[in-house]
Amino acid sequence: MSLSLTRSEFDIACKAYISKYNFDSSLGATDARRYPNGWTWKEHASLPNFGYMCRAVFFPLTPTVQSGDEPDEDVYHGISDVDDNAALTQTQSTGVLSTRQYVVHSPTFQVPAFYFTIHDSAGSPLTLADIVTTPLFRRHALPETVSNSFAVSAPESLFPMLSQGDHPTLGTPAWYFHPCHTLESVAEVMMEVQQDEWTTEQRLLRWLETWFMVLGNIVDFGAGSL
User: Fold this and answer.
1) What are phi and psi of 196, to 5 degrees?
2) Which end of the chain has the least Cβ crowding within 10 Å, N or C?
3) Does domain 7-60+95-217 have CATH number 3.30.1460?
4) Rounded CA gap, 199 and 191, in Å?
5) Is 86 helix (H, G, I), strand (E, B) or coil?
6) Alpha-carbon distance values, 168 to 114, 129, 134, 226 (Å)
7) Dist CA 99 CA 112 (whole Å)
8) pLDDT value of position 94
9) How far apart are CA 9 and CA 82, in angstroms?
């Protein structure tokens, strides 16, 4: 059985994830830290098979939660599904960093990919040097990397770890983590936990949960407060 995700499997996984983590009131704070909530599903305005997950998160200019620390439950109060204009208005009035986060499908690697934008309180995009110091990243999550103004790379890696490119559905500039090693990382976990009695939806949901867990070693999905 292939452990990659086709386009249709990605859609099923995302919708199952949103249904579970956005609407299940029985989930505790530990689950919320491991599996971030607040996501919505967006379809392309005119083309099929270009849907994606998105959410807006706000960081204080002086972070109250440092990357790598255990955030308290209040950290999730800054997560919402407002649109870009509303998010920008909020940053201008409260003096916070605004980030839009996206989970999209990579047709090349057949896995999810994490895209994001981040702006200051005046609506200006942050430089890469500033981005890597925000609470979006866990403390010491990018050791021994080589960076310039448009990418962060691990030594001797063929692909940059973090770089800039157009959002595959919106066509707007964004930062993204290159998904070249995603499959091997997720597959290693899935081979250990996969159960024969799982339905297709349960297997795909677990795949996306594992992806969040793996990426969560670098990205602090729990950071963000108003």
Assistant:
1) -65, -30
2) N
3) yes
4) 16
5) helix
6) 11, 24, 24, 29
7) 19
8) 52
9) 26
- Residue that is written with structure tokens 């009695």 in the block: 197
- pLDDT for 27 equals 64
Mean pLDDT confidence for 34-43? 92
Measuring CA to CA, which residue among 139, 144, 136 is closest to residue 177?
Answer: 136
């208005």: which residue's tokens? 89
What is the average pLDDT value for the chain, to the nearest integer? 82
pLDDT exceeds cutoff 60 at 48: yes
Q: What is the pLDDT of residues 118-129, one digit of tens each?
A: 999 899 999 998
Cα torsion at 135, 182, 110, 54 (round to 10°)? -10
SS3 per residue for 13-65 = HHHHHHHHHHHCCCCCHHHHHHCCCCCEEECCCCCCCCCEEEEEEEEECCCCC
Rounded distance between C-alpha atoms, residue 180 and residue 106, angstroms: 10
Q: Taking the domains of the chain in order of start, what are their residue ranges?
A: 7-60+95-217
Pull the structure tokens for residue 22.
Answer: 């956005």
pLDDT at 149: 74
